Amino acid sequence: MADQFDVIVIGAGPGGYVCAIRAAQLGMKVACVEKRATLGGTCLNVGCIPSKALLQSSENYHELLHGFARHGVSAENVSFDLGKMMGHKDEVVGANTKGVEFLFKKNKVTWLKGAASFKSANTIVVDGKEYGARHIVIATGSESVPLPGVEVDETQIVTSTGAIALESVPKHLVVIGGGYIGLELGSVWRRLGAEVTVVEFLDRLVPTMDGEVATAFQKTLGKLGMKFKLGTKVTGAAKTAKGVTLTLEPAKGGAAETLEADVVLVAIGRRAHTEGLGLDAVGVATDERGRVKTNGHYATSVPGIYAIGDVIAGPMLAHKAEEEGVALAELLAGQAGHVNYGAIPGVVYTWPEVASVGKTEEELKAEGVAYKVGKFPFTANGRARAMGDTDGFVKLLSDKTTDKLLGAHIIGPDAGTIIAELVLAIEFGASAEDVARTSHAHPSLNEAVKEAALAVDGRALHI
Ligand code: FAD
Ligand code: NAI
Q1: Do 123 and 176 reside in the same domain of the chain?
Q2: Which of 109, 193, 244, 264, by CA, is between 20 and 30 Å from 301?
Q3: In-domain check, residue 215
Q4: 142 annotated as belonging to a binding site for a ligand
Q5: In what residue span(s) does the FAD/NAD(P)-binding domain sit (predicted)?
């Protein structure tokens, strides 16, 4: 007889582990299966957390080298120790993954170690042993999309996993894909001294970002010394004694050229990971992109089987996966779990950071929505001036008739933290005027948000 649980979650990433903890909090007997040696999924092991540790370390070095002088602070013989930087990153990862293990124990979630596959709609097999549950949740996440002709070896041609563990700073790093991963990790290695060239298929960076913000973003990354080849595709890679020779072509067709690299980072997106689960055997339907199909309540095509996180449709973000994990656990407990997909922020943790929530101007135009725009630059914000960090602006979009906030886009210092008040505003259905009437501490970066909200009706005070 198989061990029985109320809920078995497959995958202990931000979607899975949070779902398991919430279900346990609600009184259910829960197991979570994870095949990795540590909990926390892509995000804690090889994604969000290690990349942010390296972004912080490289930013510290870069500031000491180029930023502090404007404050009259100087240092001699500025250097860095890559081994120690990587050691710090590994410590941070270890503390976070062990933290999840502690939370499992605290909440009495059983960790089933190994890879799960379905035997039936309510039975899985892990390491030859069967486990049964009333509800089974697929939270198996995503993996890097491969690029034909550019074979990953994780040393010379790497995905993000290899790019957060390089043993030395490459002389020339070529990044294929100008999205979240390429720009974050490209800026890490640029700050540490690599020449960085980003090859992007489209004629702009981060296609999901507001166009005006993306243009400003490319300019700030250009100031850092990153180079861009937009509207260009990579058609092949050949390893040489010195590194890798890439063959490039204009995306619209034209003459081929070559580009020499020491290391190549392939970052052209991620795709749902369902390999080895045996979805076909139980009849769980997937869509044209291999993502598990779900209804509005995370139920798959098979009763009793659910799915959340990167393995289903929607933005591939840790906090989106977490929200879904909580909502599903609450639904399984008979409560009213819900995720507001209109209020999921997205942040690129470069410096300056780029943060957004809600609709972009391009989306509003495409949907034929009449809107107002309010903008305020950080050059006119006292705190940003004091920091010596005045690149960027806040841009708010509100409904032309009702003034309801529809989108918020920020490029600037700490944009990822500043955006939180606008996520809350959108969650609560606030108008731009509500934000404008809210007292903002002085002198703070968030005053730029208030000013942008005032600017929606042409009454900014400080510009
Ligand atoms: P995952 O975190 O991918 O976890 C799935 C887990 O399931 C894995 O541990 C896997 O081993 C396990 N698994 C798979 N199949 C099986 C099986 N059959 N049996 C047992 N276990 C299985 N998002 C952000 O919001 N902010 C960021 O700053 C950010 N930075 C990122 C940086 C990088 C370099 C990368 C690659 C991603 C980043 N992301 C970021 C995205 C974020 O990591 C994902 O959105 C998030 O991890 C998705 O969570 P998940 O629970 O759906 O899946
Ligand atoms: P991405 O979707 O963000 O960007 C991929 C880029 O590659 C796009 O600009 C796309 O046009 C381009 N591209 C696609 N095919 C190409 C080709 N053949 N040649 C050249 N360019 C090509 O994907 P990325 O950067 O791999 O990241 C995956 C996901 O991980 C992100 O979308 C995001 O959801 C998540 N992530 C989130 C982070 C955060 O929240 N800060 C950080 C890192 C990743």
Answers
A1: no
A2: 109
A3: yes
A4: yes
A5: 5-325
What 3-state DSSP class applies to 196? Answer: strand
Q: Letter for the amino acid at 342?
A: G
Tokens of 253: 């067709």
ipTM here: 0.99
The answer to whether position 224 is within a domain reads: yes
Residue 24 located in a structural domain: yes
Range of the domain at 194: 157-268
Gap between the Cα atoms of 11 and 14, Å rounded:
9
CA 150 – CA 153 distance, rounded (Å): 10
Q: How far is CA 308 from CA 27, 153, 233, in A?
A: 20, 30, 32
Q: Tell me: the pLDDT tens digits for 403-414?
A: 999 999 999 999
Active site residues: 442
pTM: 0.98
The residue whose CB lies within 8 Å of the most ligand 1 atoms, and thus the one to mutate among 34, 36, 42, is 42
Task: Tell me whether the omega of the peptide bond preceding residue 443 falls within 30 degrees of 0, making it cis.
Answer: yes
Sheet with 371-377, strands from edge to edge, namely: 346-348, 353-358, 405-412, 393-399, 371-377
Query: By the 8 A CB rule, do 58 and 35 touch?
Result: no
Residues near 424 by Cβ (< 8 Å), separated by ≥ 6? none
